[in-house]
């Protein structure tokens, strides 16, 4: 179990949007489409227009996540786990970043339009800066398991969420403006941004037992070694070199926008062991990331 069964996780502000359109089957043509979606995983860059999509959800219906009151609920349901994880993440960042404000979390059910393009399990989870909103379709984790042998267990899912929160922190801290896109490649700002988000996620996992509900009951149990390995496995799975190999391509560092599997694991562990202050990926000389 990940969440403390007795923790009160009610009162979160996560919302669900979409119309319950089934997209997991028909729209996914094969490994190529998955590789495309994984390339944009964590980036906030939407290129879903080039991927054949299923029926559009229309984007109308939006509702609060219901039946998400206790840690037991969060352990039982992917959507509730994400919503509850956002409570812990907000509390963590309030202690780490001055002037922190919570992003909105939208659980995508099917697909939904956003200011950053369509959100669905085909685009993967992403952060949309102009909306200060994290979009996650929980069915994405099943795709990760099917296509890339990732375990994508509960902590790995929370790692993905924490990575997106890392981009929110970067946005409100102004680092997206300070270090704008300067192309791809292993030393690019894009790769540094992704590795920093991995490091931030690791920092949170390293202190996830410190966040508590209104009664002082901690939200999350200490992660097990297996869960840590699972989260690192997720980081490894979405490394650019791994994706390039899985999709039948050769490994070409110049096209990297996210970092290699080894880099992503390394920076996750850096944050996990040493905290947020050890996550200055922009200060690391080129070639040493
Ligand atoms: Zn990212």
TrEMBL record:
Main location, first listed in the record: membrane
Pfam families: Zn_peptidase (PF04228)
Annotated compartments: Membrane
Membrane topology field: Single-pass membrane protein
Transmembrane segments: 21-42
Keywords: Membrane, Transmembrane, Transmembrane helix
A GO CC term assigned to this protein in UniProt: membrane
N-terminal signal peptide: none
Name of this protein: Neutral zinc metallopeptidase
Organism (species): Microbacterium allomyrinae
């Amino acid at each position: 179990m990940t969440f403390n069964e007795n923790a009160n996780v009610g009162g979160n502000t996560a919302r669900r949007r979409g119309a319950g359109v089934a997209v997991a089957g028909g729209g996914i043509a094969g490994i190529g489409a998955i590789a495309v979606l994984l390339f944009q995983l964590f980036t906030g860059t939407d290129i879903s227009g080039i991927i054949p999509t299923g029926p559009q959800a229309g984007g109308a219906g939006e509702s609060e996540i219901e039946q998400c009151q206790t840690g037991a609920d969060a352990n039982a349901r992917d959507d509730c786990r994400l919503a509850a994880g956002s409570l812990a993440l907000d509390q963590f960042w309030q202690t780490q970043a001055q002037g922190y404000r919570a992003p909105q979390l939208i659980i995508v059910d099917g697909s939904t339009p956003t200011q950053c393009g369509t959100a669905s399990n085909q685009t993967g989870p992403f952060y949309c800066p102009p909306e200060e909103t994290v979009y996650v379709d929980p069915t994405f984790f099943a795709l990760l398991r099917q296509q890339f042998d990732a375990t994508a267990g509960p902590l790995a899912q929370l790692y993905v969420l924490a990575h997106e929160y890392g981009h929110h922190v970067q946005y409100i801290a102004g680092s997206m403006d300070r270090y704008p896109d300067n192309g791809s490649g292993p030393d690019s700002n894009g790769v540094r941004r992704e590795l920093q988000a991995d490091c931030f996620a690791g920092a949170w996992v390293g202190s996830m037992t410190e966040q508590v509900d209104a009664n002082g009951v901690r939200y999350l149990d200490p992660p097990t070694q297996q869960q840590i390995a699972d989260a690192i496995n997720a980081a490894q799975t979405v490394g650019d070199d791994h994706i390039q190999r899985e999709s039948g391509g050769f490994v070409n560092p110049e096209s990297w926008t996210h970092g290699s599997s080894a880099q992503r694991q390394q920076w996750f562990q850096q944050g996990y062991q040493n905290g947020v202050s050890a996550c200055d990926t922009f200060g690391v000389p080129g070639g040493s990331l």
